[in-house]
Write a structure and sequence with these properties.
Layout (H helix, E strand, L loop, with lengths): L6 E5 L2 E8 L8 H9 L8 E5 L5 H6 L7 E6 L2 H13 L6 E5 L14 E6 L16 H7 L6 H11 E12 L3 H10 L2 E12 L6 E8 L6 E2 L3 E5 L2 E2 L1 H7 L3
Parallel strand pairs: 3-4, 3-6, 4-5, 6-7, 8-10, 8-11
Antiparallel strand pairs: 1-2, 7-9, 8-9, 11-12
């Protein structure tokens, strides 16, 4: 298999949803599925935007939770955006999902201000400077490192396109929690729900899920921790998320 040869997978337990992926790019991971599961697109949510959508796993997963909301995925990398468009067509979700190939900083060209109910994002986790070693392929480096957009950029964009009381759902690394909370506050977000993710029971949290509301009242709920692994297997809760109907 060459690095650019494509592979076709099902979206975990959702065998009716298929996903084209490329091994030289960052394939969908547990992080994206946890973001989509943590989001609550109720009946009032009619417009969703997924930032840095990659091959579109989050929009595709969200179709199992809402049949009425329109979902727009924005992706900087052309190859990933092209595959995302093909994934949408492959699963016949053209009426519900749109894919935009552009820099996130240009999202206002495609999304009206104050018009979105829910923003989702599995962002790049790692900061970069001129001394940061980038050992991955260029495609993977952009997905993992803040080369195209920082969390500040993502929060600022989300604040522009969400309407007041709109929600921003994302995942991030625990060591950046304090910085991220400060960034959210500066961009008029109040945290409504948070959940810490532990690789195993009795291990420290490594990631967290967050739902923040634009111009919302203060008052945060911290949900029970999510344990990813039980021994060498996924935990029962993670397996349930994989097979959510």
């Amino acid at each position: 298999m060459t690095s650019k040869e494509e592979a076709l997978h099902t979206l975990l337990g959702h065998r009716h949803i298929r996903l084209i992926q490329r091994p030289d790019m960052l394939c969908f991971s547990l992080d994206s599925i946890l973001v989509a599961d943590f989001a609550n697109p109720g009946k009032s949510v009619q417009k969703i935007v997924d930032l840095g959508t990659g091959f579109a796993p989050i929009p595709l997963f969200l179709t199992t939770k809402t049949k009425t909301a329109h979902i727009t995925g924005i992706e900087l990398q052309k190859d990933a955006a092209d595959i995302a468009k093909r994934n949408v067509a492959l699963n016949r979700f053209e009426r519900q999902i749109s894919i935009v190939h552009d820099d996130l900083k240009n999202a206002n060209r495609h999304i009206e201000a104050d018009s979105v109910d829910l923003v989702t994002c599995n962002p790049p986790f790692f900061k970069v400077d001129e001394d940061t070693p980038l050992k991955e392929s260029p495609h993977q480096a952009y997905a993992k490192h803040e080369l195209g957009a920082t969390f500040k950029d993502i929060a600022s964009l989300s604040a522009r396109i969400l309407h007041p009381k709109g929600r921003f759902v994302f995942i991030h690394r625990i060591e950046r929690l304090e910085e991220i909370l400060n960034t959210l506050k500066r961009h008029r977000f109040s945290v409504k729900r948070m959940r810490f993710i532990h690789p195993r029971e009795h291990k420290e949290a490594s990631l967290f899920l967050c739902e923040a509301m634009l111009d919302g009242a203060w008052g945060m709920r911290v949900l029970p921790p999510l344990i990813v692994h039980n021994g060498s297997n996924y935990s029962d809760e993670v397996l349930k998320i994989f097979n959510r109907k």
